[in-house]
Amino acid sequence: MRHQDELKRSVGEAAVKFIEDGMTVGLGTGSTVRFMVDALGERVKSEHLSIVGVPTSERTREQANGLGIPTKGVDEVDHIDLTIDGADEINRAFQGIKGGGAAHLWEKIVAINSDKNMWIVDSSKMVDELGTFPLPLEVIPYGSQQLLKRLDAKGYHPKFRMNGDQYVTTDSNNYVIDLHLGEIKEPHALALELDQMTGIVEHGLFLDLVNTVIVGREDGPQTIQAR
Ligand SMILES: O=C(CO)[C@H](O)[C@H](O)COP(=O)(O)O
């Protein structure tokens, strides 16, 4: 296993220790979360844990169900105790960029409906300033070429996310535009601006949402209380 994958596995295994019998747990998306869901599947099997998972993507739902973890949609539960998700970048104020896996719309819906949010990352995701990682936008296909032009005019260096010559589509059948910003000096101001642009369903800035971050480091997982 690659070294970075070892770190991802270590934080995935550390995170499932926070899950208690009877909980409703939001299950994020991505390669780090994959390790967490594997470890959760082990616990469900060996400890007969009674939990319900709320997946943030079809990929995660399929993995969880394959491991015997029961799942429900976000509208089928009355609350979510804890959501465990990955992130693409986290700055010193614990603001994050998500959406590298094109799942940030469902991830944000699950996150804002959760009592607590935990992010699990390898140490490469911890940054001084957000923006080196391209900022994902989930956009409605109708009018998206015009939206791209408007974003370009603002100097945001937008690019459709492609898979060969096909547009990448989300679980809600939308497109993804990535903004190549280089740096994001004022995340809240940018979030507000993007929230107000017609055609953008959701952006990947996750601000003031996370409570706990587990960082995979050489000497073991480090758990940080963000707020
Ligand atoms: O936001 C996400 C998916 O939309 C992921 O959580 C994020 O991209 C991190 O993924 P990985 O653990 O594979 O690095």
From TrEMBL:
GO terms for biological process: D-ribose metabolic process; pentose-phosphate shunt, non-oxidative branch. Its EC number is 5.3.1.6. It comes from the Bacteria. Gene3D superfamilies: 3.30.70.260, 3.40.50.1360. The active site is at E107. GO terms for molecular function: ribose-5-phosphate isomerase activity. Signal peptide: none annotated. Keywords: Isomerase. It catalyses: aldehydo-D-ribose 5-phosphate = D-ribulose 5-phosphate. Pathway: Carbohydrate degradation; pentose phosphate pathway; D-ribose 5-phosphate from D-ribulose 5-phosphate (non-oxidative stage): step 1/1. Pfam families: Rib_5-P_isom_A (PF06026). GO terms for cellular component: cytosol. Catalyzes the reversible conversion of ribose-5-phosphate to ribulose 5-phosphate. Belongs to the ribose 5-phosphate isomerase family. Homodimer. HAMAP family: Rib_5P_isom_A. This is Ribose-5-phosphate isomerase A. The gene is rpiA.
